[in-house]
Amino acid sequence: MDLVKALSEKYVKPDLPEINVGDTVRVSVKVKEGNRERIQAFEGIIIARKHGGINETITVRRISYNVGCEKVFPINSPNIVSIDIVRKGKVRRAKLYYLRDRVGKQAKIREKL
């Protein structure tokens, strides 16, 4: 198992910020359309972190036009350009799946000062 860990350490991004569940983040992703490539931002609240090491993923949720949209991003993917923290959230849960049932002001998360 040490061989697998040694091979995967090469691909883990060292310059990632300290992100936690409840933080509002802006994830910049490379999008390829035909022969063109551009960077698209997705901003929302992290509702889950899963796995670890090279397989680590975050689930980001945002509401646009009164419809909830969730995306799962592998944080060590080469298609992820950057992850910027917009605000830190103060939560007491590891997974914020209860936000799926809430809309408006109920879906707010307190800011960590």
Question: What can be said about this structure in brief?
Answer:
With 113 residues, the chain is mainly beta. It is built from one helix and five strands.
Shape: globular
Structure summary, number of beta strands: 5
Q: Assign a percent range to the helix content.
A: under 10%
The average pLDDT value, as a whole number, equals 94
Main structural class: mainly beta
- Tally the helices: what do you get? 1
Low-confidence segments: none
Separation, N- and C-terminal Cα atoms: 41 Å
**Percent of sequence in beta strands:** 35-45%
Strand order of the largest sheet: 4-3-2-1-5
Name the helix and strand elements from N-terminus to C-terminus, one letter apiece: HEEEEE
Radius of gyration from CA coordinates:
15 Å
Under CATH at level 1, the class stands as Mainly Beta
CATH architecture assignment: Roll
> How would you sum up the major sheet?
5 strands, antiparallel
Domain count: the total is: 1
Task: Report the CATH topology name.
Answer: SH3 type barrels
Walk me through this protein's architecture.
This protein has one helix at residues 2-9, and strands at residues 24-33, 36-50, 57-64, 67-74, 80-87. It is mainly beta and 113 residues long. The chain has one domain (2-102): SH3 type barrels, CATH 2.30.30.790. The chain has a 5-stranded antiparallel β-sheet with strand order 4-3-2-1-5, with no helix packed on it.
List keywords for this structure.
113 residues; mainly beta; SH3 type barrels; 5 strands
